[in-house]
# Entry
Amino acid sequence: MFPRHGCLKYKTHLLCAGCALLLTIATFAQTPAAATPPAASAPRPSEILHPSLDQVKQAMADINISRWKAPGEIRASTQQNADSIQRDLSSVLPGLLAQADAAPGSAAAVFPVYRNIDALYDVLLRISQTANLTAPQNEAVSIVSALDKLESARNQLADSILTNSRNAESKLANLQAAVQKAAAAQKQAPPRTVIVDNTAEKSTTRHRKKTTNSSNPPNPPNTGTPSSPQ
# Structure
């Protein structure tokens, strides 16, 4: 990654706010909402940036800073900036673009690309300013052309992020309206009465009647009179 000088521009801070808003949407993403017209799919960041990045890469390959009419310290500093741009184009940006292309509507995935392009633009601008004073005309013109195209792509990427932010804000408003509507409908619905019968069933006990054994008749009563002898 190349060094940064100074703070990010106002648009960068505005995009940060948009990024925070999009991340807030995730809290309500699982809440069902009323049907809304589908938003247009966000363009992939690589589609926006690749033409300008290819031109920057070609401009860096065509320049010969050692031949610029500048003091040694300035040439060395400019060469370091050019090397950092080439490293970024070959090592850092491809991974960031792959993540952003996988979720072009996600600020969390796209904003790191914008921040990287913003820093790359600042470094290329310093090289261009030095080239206008010390480099051959063809090299200076090549760098200026690449710088202009990169600025146009950067603005287009920023517009895409802001559009996604506005879409997310609209989605959040729809979700909140749906929740409020559901809550109001629930309050207006008449209460339901539920009757629970907890009375225990009465148990019945069967009593068995006592029966006498009819096979053994009762003995005759004793009268107390002895039988007469034969």
